[in-house]
Design goal:
The complex is a heterodimer of chains A (about 290) and B (about 270). Chain A contains 11 helices and no strands. By secondary structure, chain A is mainly α. Chain B has a single domain, classed as Rossmann fold (3-Layer(aba) Sandwich). In chain B, helix 4 crosses helix 5 and helix 5 packs across helix 7. Chain B is globular. Classes of the chains: A mainly alpha (about 290), B alpha/beta (about 270). Chains A and B meet through helix 7, helix 8 and helix 11 of A and helix 3, strand 6, helix 4 and helix 7 of B.
Chain lengths: ~290, ~270
């Protein structure tokens, strides 16, 4: 076989493999969307779920998903940012920081159901937080920290050293250089990392089943006192999220329209995750453009 | 051979009488180590005030390392021993506040490295970090710095545009403007024109000749024409040693050391 034919053959195989991946993805997404999108209506998105009758919605689950997402990010972002800055800007290369890096890597490959069971034992049982938003948010933090830390560390590492030298040469301290030059320059990729991890958190179920719980008690949306247990903001109430809801309907749902609700909820979840991804790309590109050229 | 070199070095360093001139910066027995290996030995140089001094020499001769040691940019990379005297103070000692010191001894690098901020912010940023918040004052310093770097007319309408949108030559002059905005005494330049085209290079050179009136300039260059065009004094580095240091005219027309002659006539390097 001559080189030209070998090249053609190899190119063909690569195209076929790529096409296969795309087809599987499109088929999967298409199936979920075609099945689910007709079920989505304003009523479906806003009304509470019904356990025994048809016509229930996913309003509370949707709210819970967003609330948990925000709480988890509020807790994990400062920690990840601090850890990322330390690892990339301050830590010298030695055994201890090597150990920290390895630990982060191991943590990031931990199955989420293990994170969920750890959260159950630690936050729910040991700290007596019960099945609650707070337990769920902490579990999601454990789940999110390693990946977010890695992505922030990488974003900082991509800023060339010449930027740091420019800061030092102007008589700026290391801290000023990091916070005022390096972090702002890395902001587009940091934000992309945060939004992508938001997508992962939003779709997470296994880490939440035993921490945020599997029930979504009715909420009083006129009561915004976070210390009241019936308030949507109460961090101590159990909160079933969208992803957990889907899992639950499919394993033990007894409402007559379980299949339709599950399909609709899955479509909403997929659309939300897709939106997070597009938002991440769009925001990252826009910020980069804004920084580099008007 | 080594002894002979050492003698010539000593003699040539004293080629001009330091007492007759005002010395802005001088080094005494400066030695730089990367780990165990010695990159600079016997670095003894005096830099005269309001003059341009060039450091020339083949790649790896230690001229950049020497320059970067002068405002302690090598602190975390290498071990620097010896004295660097600035206004009667040894700035290579631990007691010196390096951040404060670098406001007096600024630096411009080989590759233009503007911040990912607007042109205005590139200059105003460091001043604001020092607590200068007066808008009028900032505007004024931004304008004078850009004028001194000979680029005010080109960018005065685009001050809010990102600095990264400028051409390489403009970026480098912005970096010079940024460095002089904090009003240093001494400006160190590490091959500032090596990444630029000939037109931008000559613009940067004009800028430096202009700046000489108010600043002591020390410049590392690979370009011997550049050294002879703009500098008053030239030091020739080889293998981590200063082999010859004299007035630029002398070095280029009448070098005392054979190696210097070989280098400037392009026989090696």
């Amino acid at each position: 076989m001559n080189a030209k034919r070998a090249d053609k053959l190899a190119t063909g195989i690569l195209y076929a493999v790529a096409a296969l991946v795309v087809i599987i993805l499109v088929a999967l997404l298409g199936y979920i969307l075609v099945q689910g999108v007709p079920e989505i209506s304003w009523h479906f998105l806003t009304s509470p779920a019904l356990a025994f009758e048809a016509g229930g919605g996913i309003g509370i689950q949707l709210f819970n998903s967003f609330y948990l997402l925000i709480l988890a990010l509020v807790i994990s972002l400062p920690i990840s940012l601090g850890a990322g800055i330390y690892l990339n800007e301050y830590a010298s290369k030695n055994t201890i920081t090597g150990l920290i890096r390895t630990t982060i890597e191991i943590l990031s490959s931990l199955p989420s159901v293990v994170v969920g069971l750890f959260g159950y034992l630690f936050f729910v049982v040991q700290f007596k937080l019960g099945f609650s938003i707070l337990s769920g948010a902490f579990a999601l933090t454990v789940f999110n920290l390693p990946i977010l830390t890695r992505s922030i560390e990488e974003a900082l590492a991509n800023i060339p050293d010449s930027q740091r030298e420019a800061g030092y040469a102007l008589g700026l301290s290391r801290w000023e250089t990091v916070t005022k030059i390096v972090v702002p320059a890395a902001l587009p990729s940091i934000i992309t990392g945060v939004v992508l991890s938001a997508g992962r958190i939003f779709g997470e179920a296994a880490a939440l089943i035993y921490t945020a719980g599997q029930s979504a008690p009715a909420l009083d949306f006129s009561n915004w006192n976070p210390f009241d247990i019936s308030s949507p903001l109460s961090p101590l109430r159990p909160a079933e999220t969208l992803a957990v809801h889907i899992w639950k309907i499919n394993s033990e749902g007894i409402m007559p329209d379980a299949k339709a609700v599950s399909a609709g909820a899955s479509a909403v979840l997929i659309i939300a995750v897709l939106l997070f991804n597009f938002l991440a790309r769009w925001l990252g590109k826009r910020l980069y453009k804004h920084l580099t050229a008007e | 051979m080594q002894n002979e070199n050492m003698e010539t070095t000593q003699r040539n360093i004293m080629h001009f009488d330091p007492k007759a001139h005002e010395i802005a910066l001088s080094t005494e027995d400066l030695r730089v180590f990367y780990g165990q290996s010695e990159a600079i030995s016997e670095g003894d140089l005096q830099f005269e005030r309001y003059k341009i001094s060039s450091l020339i020499g083949p790649s790896g001769s230690g001229k950049s390392t020497f320059l970067r040691s002068l405002n302690r940019m090598n602190d975390r990379i290498a071990t620097v021993k010896g004295k660097i005297m600035y206004r009667g103070l040894d700035i290579n000692s631990d007691e010196v506040d390096v951040y404060e010191m670098r406001r007096h001894i600024g630096m411009v690098f080989q590759r233009p490295n503007p911040f990912a901020k607007s042109i205005y912010e590139n200059i105003a940023f460091a001043l604001r970090q020092r607590g200068l918040n007066d808008k009028h004052k900032l505007d004024e310093i931004v304008e004078t710095s850009l004028r001194q770097a000979a680029m005010w007319d080109q960018v005065k309408d685009d001050l809010n545009k990102s600095a990264l949108a400028l051409s390489g030559g403009q970026q480098q002059r912005l970096c010079i403007a940024r460095a002089i905005a904090v009003k240093p005494d001494i400006l160190l330049l590490d091959e500032p024109a090596s990444a630029l085209d000939p037109v931008s290079t000559s613009q940067v050179e004009d800028t430096l000749l202009e700046l000489k009136q108010n600043y002591t300039i020390i410049i590392v260059t690979h370009n011997m024409q550049q050294a002879s065009r703009i500098s008053d004094y030239t030091a020739f580095f080889n293998l981590g040693k200063v082999l010859e240091y004299a007035e630029t005219g002398d070095i280029f027309t009448n070098p005392k050391v054979d190696l210097t002659n070989d280098y400037i006539s392009g026989n090696f390097g």
